[in-house]
Give the backbone structure.
Amino acid sequence: MTTFEPAYARLARSGELARRAEEARRLASPCRLCPRKCGVDRAAGGLGFCRTGTLARVSHAGPHFGEEPPLRGEGGAGTVFFSGCNMACVFCQNHQISQEDSGREMTSRELARVFLELQSQGCHNLDLVSPTHVAAQVLEALGLAAADGLRLPVVYNSGGYDAVETLRLFEGVVDIYLPDAKYGDDGPALRLSKAPGYVEANQAALREMFRQVGLLRLTRKGHAEKGLIVRHLVLPNNLAGTESVLRFIADELSPSVTVSLMSQYSPCHLAGADPTINRPLTAGEYEAALDAFDRAGLESGFIQEFRSQRTGLPDFDKQQPFQW
C-alpha cells in the first residue's frame, strides 16, 4: 500500500472533515447543494430533484478502464457511481443510474468500506461519479475511510452543475476535478438537461475547481496526481456550443488546462424523440470541434478516435487518441 498521505487524511484527524460534512448537511436542509437550490428539507425526508435523502445510493463500484489514460492507468479508476443526479439529460447514457435510481442506499460506514475495497483492488484513485448531491455523505465516509487507511487520490467527477459554496467544502479533499463543461448556451442546457442557468454556474464552478487544484500534474508513471481535466461532449448540430466552451477555458482559466474532447455521442435514453439530436455525431462535426480547439489556443488534452481518422491530428500533450 502506498505511504502517500493525502490532505484529506490530515483533515480527518483534525476534525475538519467532520465539520465540513456537518456544513454540507446544513446546506442540504433546505437544499442548496447545487445551483438548482430546490430548497427541499432532506433531513425531514424530502428528496428534491435528485431524489436523494439522507443516505447516498450507490449503483455500482469497481475498477473502471474507460476513463482518460492518466486516471485509468493499469489498475483502473476506482469508480463509485452514485444514483440520482442534479441534471436530467435526455441523452444520458447512464440514465438507469442517474434518473431511474438503480442501486441501494448505504450508510457512511458502508460507503467508507466501499472506498477501502477499491483501494485493496489496486485502483489508482477514488473516482466519485456524480457526487454533488451526496456531498455530506461523501465527506463523512472519507473521514471514516481515512481513519482506516484510505490513501487514494480523490477524483470529483461531475456534470459541472456545481455550487461554489459546496465545492469549497472539498478544498484539500479533492485531488483531481473531472467536471463536464456541457454547454456554452443556456437554451440547450435547459431544454436538453433541465439545468437552468447552467453556463454561469458551470463557469463559476470551473474557476473554483481550477483555483483549488490548478493544472493537471502526473506522477513519473503517468498517473494523475492533482489538477483539473475538463470534459466536453460534442453534440450534433453544435448544440453544445463547443467553440464558446473552449474559448472560456482557454481565456478565463488557462490555455494549458487539460480538455477531454469527446466524440462518443449517440442518441441514448429519450434523445431519439428529439429531431435535433436523434442521430450520432458526424465526422465533420467532430472535425469542427477539433478546429475550435486549435482556434482557442488550447495546448493540452485528449481526443477520441472517430471512424474516419483526421489528417494531421493535433498532438494533445503527446497522448495518442483513445477510444472509450
Q: What stands out?
A: The chain is about 35% helix and 15% strand. Residues 198-213 form the longest helix (16 residues). The chain has one domain: 7-303. The longest strand covers residues 224-233.
